[in-house]
């Protein structure tokens, strides 16, 4: 099987985000990591490779510094890594991002599965997986919580999707686009993987390599606009200790308080 | 000159940090309180390759360099000293001694399973009556044909009750002082080996420390490490590696104090301001920040020298001395910044102090290192070449796969 995992380099989940007067978002010097949702997709893809053979290719759309995220994925066990980088890509919205990823996946040739995180922890739009599936013309299996079976020869996959109402079992033909929920415990990089990643010369594909013209990518090609960006107002949190003579009394007072606040 | 970590080093750091944060941080407090080692610790460290991090691949290791060993120790001790102690004892004091002095047969038989983490190793030099004065040990090894008969008692041995292999220093010729000492690889399964745990330690309470008794323990001649009479030099060379891991670990402990203090100083309010805005608190934070940077540079230099195959007894001693003293001060100040909360085990900083205190005692007390540094500076002490030096790090050699038999 050839599995492609599109990942994103994001600020650490503990980073403190600030928004300046002109709407620019900054996370200061917080460390950059592999989007945690993508790590689930990497882990699941590596397990599929271990079971069925083949390879896992990790790709990302981002600046030169995003090579670090790719190396992290290689250190975990991915076989190949490609950076999609071109100054013209800057400002691409989710739909254009999907178009660029789709062009890269087509260029990779025979691909059985695209597996990515359900969303990124910075953008949180969750739009790229469906947009990518549409671009490729492949079925979309979003919010996957479990892979039940894969039949590479019969070219089908059965997954459990996690929905608000419960779980949905879906069978789809391959190739398909999957987006991952928290479905496993991502492995740490191995020392052997670290050595491989450190040595690896990461390929860089630009717009021309992907057969895309400058008008098809970047801010100009994007439909999404951000008329105003601002930090949400800080929530004032007040802490109140409920005291009482016995646990029963404390519980009663707590319930009264929650009812009074219309929480219950 | 290049002060940047390589991609490889950064990834090692990141991986070990994640492991310690994700798996150890949530459980360490209860194990420290209960004075119980984490039962699955060796298994996890072995699975990650940490137990053979800087051992060549052909001897079962991960094939990384000595700087990676230091970085791993810093990250591990940032969470708890007991993790770094495993690296000091199993990797540095024991396994690196086998790499440095062992025969091919000894490496195949003992180093390989140790580097893979299938066997755990410890180092037994200290005795009830001999600590800093290592030549005063009284454990004897009497040659009888093809075996040495060991008799004596070792104490304050890290992992005494958990290890499978011990590197034991004993007197083969008690008349000859430090030239009458030899080193032996002893298996727990050998007759007459008994071990026990010491409870009630001030710190490293999640780590196992204990005693070992040898009662007419027969040790095959082929288990002697190095030549007869070379034991003192082997023991001291082992300490050059053990102290390096302590230096790196103590650096991590300083960082833990600094991170905890910065966080708290930015949250806690007094007199209408964050306490970090008070200059006397700032002084303590500034000192921690400075000592972290100094300690880090000192241990990384020692690691670089090891990579280059340069003798580093002096530099490693300095790194260990500075980092451990600074760790004690950083932990004291971290408690001071945390006030009464720091004095309780609700916060981690009290554990940092208890763990730091041991470090200015083991692997050369601060007093021993003070004297060493003075003697080097005064020209009273010179290091003579050893018969077997710790091999310089050679990436090709370290990563070569074992030849197929």
From TrEMBL, chain A:
Its cofactor is AMP. The keyword Oxidoreductase applies. InterPro entries: ET-Flavoprotein_bsu_CS, ETF_a/b_N, ETF_b, ETF_beta_N, Rossmann-like_a/b/a_fold. It comes from the Bacteria. Keywords: Oxidoreductase. GO terms for molecular function: electron transfer activity; oxidoreductase activity. Residues 22-214 form the Electron transfer flavoprotein alpha/beta-subunit N-terminal domain. Transmembrane segments: none annotated. It holds the Pfam family ETF. SUPFAM superfamilies: Adenine nucleotide alpha hydrolases-like. Belongs to the ETF beta-subunit/FixA family. This is Electron transfer flavoprotein small subunit. It comes from Candidatus Thermoflexus japonica.
Automatic annotation (TrEMBL), chain B:
The keyword Nucleotide-binding does not apply. Residues 122-216 form the Acyl-CoA oxidase/dehydrogenase middle domain. GO terms for molecular function: acyl-CoA dehydrogenase activity; flavin adenine dinucleotide binding. Pfam families: Acyl-CoA_dh_1 (PF00441), Acyl-CoA_dh_M (PF02770), Acyl-CoA_dh_N (PF02771). Residues 6-118 form the Acyl-CoA dehydrogenase/oxidase N-terminal domain. Residues 229-374 form the Acyl-CoA dehydrogenase/oxidase C-terminal domain. Keywords: FAD, Flavoprotein, Oxidoreductase. The keyword Oxidoreductase applies. Its EC number is 1.3.99.-. It is an enzyme of class 1 (oxidoreductase). Belongs to the acyl-CoA dehydrogenase family. This is Acyl-CoA dehydrogenase. It comes from Candidatus Thermoflexus japonica. The gene is acdA_1.
């Amino acid at each position: 099987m050839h599995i492609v995992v599109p990942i994103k380099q994001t600020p650490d989940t503990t980073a403190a985000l600030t928004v300046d007067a002109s709407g620019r978002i900054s996370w200061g010097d917080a460390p950059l990591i592999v989007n945690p949702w993508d790590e689930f997709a990497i882990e699941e893809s590596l397990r599929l490779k271990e079971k069925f053979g083949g390879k896992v290719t990790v790709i990302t759309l981002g600046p030169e510094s995003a090579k670090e995220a790719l190396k992290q994925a290689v250190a975990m066990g991915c076989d190949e890594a490609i950076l999609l980088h071109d100054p013209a890509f800057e400002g691409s919205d989710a739909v254009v991002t999907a178009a660029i990823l789709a062009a890269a996946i087509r260029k990779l040739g025979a691909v059985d599965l695209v597996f990515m995180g359900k969303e990124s922890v910075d953008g949180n739009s969750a739009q790229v997986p469906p947009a990518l599936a549409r671009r490729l013309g492949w079925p979309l299996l979003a919010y996957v919580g479990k892979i039940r079976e894969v039949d590479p020869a019969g070219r089908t996959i059965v997954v459990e999707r996690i929905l608000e109402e419960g779980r949905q079992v879906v069978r789809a033909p391959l190739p398909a686009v999957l987006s991952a929920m928290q479905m496993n415990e991502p492995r740490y990089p191995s020392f052997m993987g670290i050595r491989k990643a450190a040595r690896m010369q990461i390929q860089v594909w630009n717009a021309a390599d992907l057969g895309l013209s400058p008008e098809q990518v970047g801010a100009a090609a994007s439909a999404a606009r951000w008329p105003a960006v601002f930090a949400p107002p800080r929530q004032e949190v007040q802490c109140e200790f409920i005291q009482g003579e016995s646990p029963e009394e404390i519980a009663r007072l707590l319930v009264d308080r929650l009812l009074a606040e219309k929480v219950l | 000159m290049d002060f940047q970590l390589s991609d490889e080093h950064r990834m090692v750091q990141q991986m070990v940090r994640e492991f310690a944060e994700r798996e150890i941080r949530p459980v360490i407090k209860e194990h420290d309180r209960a004075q119980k080692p984490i039962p699955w610790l060796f298994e996890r460290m072995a699975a990650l390759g940490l137990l053979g991090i800087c051992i060549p691949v052909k001897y079962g290791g991960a094939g990384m360099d000595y700087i990676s060993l230091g970085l791993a120790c810093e990250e591990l001790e940032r969470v708890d000293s007991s993790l770094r102690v495993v690296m000091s004892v199993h990797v540095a004091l024991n396994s690196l001694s086998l790499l440095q002095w062992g025969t091919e047969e000894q490496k195949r038989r003992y180093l390989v399973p140790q580097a893979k983490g299938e066997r755990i190793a410890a180092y037994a030099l200290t005795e009830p009556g001999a600590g800093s004065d290592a030549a005063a040990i009284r454990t004897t090894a009497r040659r009888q044909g093809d075996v040495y008969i060991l008799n004596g008692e070792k104490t304050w041995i890290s992992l005494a009750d958990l290890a499978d292999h011990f590197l034991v220093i004993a007197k083969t010729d008690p008349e000859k002082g430090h030239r009458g000492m030899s080193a032996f690889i002893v298996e727990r399964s050998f007759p007459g080996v008994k071990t026990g745990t010491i409870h009630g330690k001030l710190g490293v309470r999640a780590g196992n420390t204990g005693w070992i008794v040898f009662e007419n323990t027969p040790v095959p001649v082929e288990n002697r490490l190095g030549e007869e009479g070379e034991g003192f030099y082997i023991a001291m060379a082992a300490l050059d590696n053990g102290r390096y891991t302590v230096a790196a670990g103590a650096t991590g402990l300083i960082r833990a104090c600094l991170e905890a203090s910065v966080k708290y100083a930015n949250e806690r309010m007094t007199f209408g301001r964050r306490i970090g805005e008070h200059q006397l608190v700032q002084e303590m934070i500034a000192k921690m920040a400075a000592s972290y940077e100094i300690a880090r540079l000192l241990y990384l230099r020692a690691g670089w020298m090891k990579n280059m195959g340069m003798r580093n007894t002096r530099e490693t001693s300095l790194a260990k001395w500075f980092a451990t003293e600074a760790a004690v001060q950083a932990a004291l100040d971290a408690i001071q910044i945390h006030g009464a909360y720091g004095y309780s085990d609700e916060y981690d900083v009290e554990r940092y102090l208890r763990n730091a205190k041991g470090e200015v005692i083991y692997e050369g007390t601060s007093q021993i290192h003070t004297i060493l540094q003075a003697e080097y500076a005064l020209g009273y002490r010179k290091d003579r070449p050893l018969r077997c030096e710790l091999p310089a790090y050679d990436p090709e050699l370290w990563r070569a796969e074992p030849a197929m038999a």
